[in-house]
Amino acid sequence: FSTGGKQAIAKVSEPKEYYVFINLTNGQSKTLSENVKQVKWSKNENKIYYTYYDEENNSYQINISDPDTQNWQNIVTLDNQNVDNIYISNNENYALVTTYTSQESQELIYKKYLLDINNKSLKELPNIEDFSYALWSPDDKWIALIDYDGLLSIANGDFSKFQKTGKKVENNNMAWNDT
What is the pLDDT of residue 107? Predict the structure, then answer.
């Protein structure tokens, strides 16, 4: 749901996974393409960010559009990589993107990127370990990362500084103080 409560995007899982956009003001709905994944609301809730799987080119696109996917713009295309998650900064200038590829051995190889949304460019973050959750600070100067063991790390917004805290966070339960 949008925080204003006037729009919703629902993920339907049966028989296939897809999303439905619902305008709660007028009751109209639209089924989005089955290739739409990872839907995130923009800060002002008039747009959505999402990944789109381009079957023809075997690539994922990160796009922004109206909530019904009209008026879409491609931000970046990732060839031969599946997008695992997107964490959009509060000012919507950046996003932390995680991807994975499958090797012949069935081993998954994860990569992390800092996406500059305005310049439509990706910077790979090879020294950042795998994580299960990320949260931008209110001013977007920092980002907290929780690894798969629940351990917290902190990075500055451009990832030039990275520090493991050694602190365990339960169930991704954390919040920033904006003062």
Answer: 80
| pLDDT tens string 129-147 | 788 888 999 999 999 998 8
154, 129 in Cβ contact below 8 A?
no
Q: What is the dihedral of CA 19, 23, 27, 28, to 10 degrees?
A: -60
Structure tokens at 141: 């100067």
The residues with which 4 forms a beta bridge, in sequence order, are none
E-state strands within 7-147: 7-12, 18-23, 29-31, 36-41, 48-54, 59-65, 73-79, 82-88, 94-102, 108-116, 121-124, 133-136, 142-146
Nearest to 67 by CA among 26, 24, 22: 22
Q: What is the C-alpha separation between 145 and 164, in angstroms, rounded?
A: 9
CA separation for the pair 103, 90 (Å, rounded): 34
Indicate the pTM of the whole model: 0.83
